[in-house]
Amino acid sequence: MLAAGSTGGDTATQGDNTGIAFMHPPSHSEIVEAESRAQVRRREPWRVLLVFLAVFFALQYAWERGRDTAVEHVFIDELTVRPAAWIIDRLWPVFQVHAEGHRLVAAAGRLNILNGCEGMETLFLLAAAFIAYPFAWRTRLFGLAAGALLVFALNQVRIVMLWHAFLHDRVWFGILHGTVLPVLLVAACLVFFLAFLGRETPRVP
Q1: 3-state class of 111 per DSSP?
Q2: What is residue 94's DSSP assignment?
Q3: In the sheet where 98-100 sits, what is the strand order?
Q4: Which of 58, 68, 127, 188 is the most exposed place for a label (fewest CB within 10 A)?
Q5: CA distance 176 to 150
């Protein structure tokens, strides 16, 4: 019985040694990653906020300086109004909508697409967020490109909805134009940014 007990003790000791043998020390890459995360957490939030505000207002200022220039005409007339006219004409060919400068024109009415209706402010917010937050450059560039496509697509949907409301219900047009659709556009971009934030490890500042 005593020998059996000793054997059991020896077996337990061997089991413990086996368990200790599998406890590997952290690798160099794991240490670097942990330190990177710690440094990012220690980075002052106000610095991110300052960069965000500086980038947003710089982009907004540059856009305002471009009013009534060829740059504005390209972004509004060519990149906003023409695609929207094409989409509306495919959805509702009976209206025979076409683009004339910054206007959507049809026999049923005309809708002006002015500065502020092209989604640039929302794009500037998203761009400022990606630039301010310490993402890796590859992630940042991908986020900016994908974000620009997202804002373009959502703004086209917005204009199509406004056109439909413009023809059928002017009260809803005012509500959609002034409140609902701008909020939804910003909210969609926020979700897009948070998806990047949840999946990517920011770079060390």
Answers
A1: strand
A2: G
A3: 98-100, 103-106, 109-112
A4: 68
A5: 19
